[in-house]
Amino acid sequence: MSHIPEARLIIARLLPDVEAALPDAAADLRHALELMHRRPYAKPRAPDRSAPVCATKAKLIRAYVARHPRASIQEVAVIFHTNSGRVSEAIQGDR
User: Fold this and answer.
1) pLDDT at 66
2) For residue 52, what pLDDT is reported?
3) How far is it, in rounded angstroms, from Cα 29 to Cα 8?
4) How confident is the prediction along the chain (95 residues), in pLDDT tens digits per residue?
5) What confidence score (pLDDT) does residue 49 get?
6) Among 21, 30, 32, 57, which has the highest number of CB atoms less than 10 A from its own CB?
7) Cβ neighbours around 87 below 10 Å, total
8) DSSP 71
9) What is the DSSP string of 13-57?
10) Residue 18, Cβ neighbours under 10 Å: how many?
11) Which of 65, 63, 69, 8 has the alpha carbon at shortest distance from 33?
12) Taking the mean position of all CA atoms in its chain, how far away is CA 65?
């Protein structure tokens, strides 16, 4: 987890005091604050094409895999209208 948001708050809180005592240092701190913001994404994210896996669907996937142990993850994903990554997460208990 990043602590940048907390660091921005600390610098912003201290900036008025630094500005009064050290104007050059305050300019550097203002520049540092500008650098601590994430740029917007260059292009929009692609829309989701597979259905999300809720707890109920994950349970159904695990039951199906137990009954059909030779079924590939991709086959299971097609049956449940999701992707292989979500099926893998369901099987491993991550979902």
Assistant:
1) 96
2) 74
3) 10
4) 688 889 999 999 999 999 999 989 999 999 999 998 888 888 888 887 776 789 999 999 999 999 999 999 999 999 998 999 999 999 998 65
5) 74
6) 57
7) 29
8) S
9) HHHHHHHHH-HHHHHHHHHHHHHTSPPPPSSPPPPP-S----HHH
10) 17
11) 8
12) 28
Tell me the C-alpha distance between 31 and 12, whole Å.
Answer: 11
Report the b/e string of 60-74 with b at 16+ CB within 10 A: ebbebbeeeeeeebe
Tokens encoding 23: 């104007």
Nearest CA to 7 out of 33, 30, 38 is that of 33
Rounded Cα distance, 13 and 6, in Å = 11
Give the pLDDT confidence score for residue 38 in this predicted structure: 81
CA 14 to CA 56: how far, in whole Å? 50
In the block, residue with structure tokens 């979500």: 86
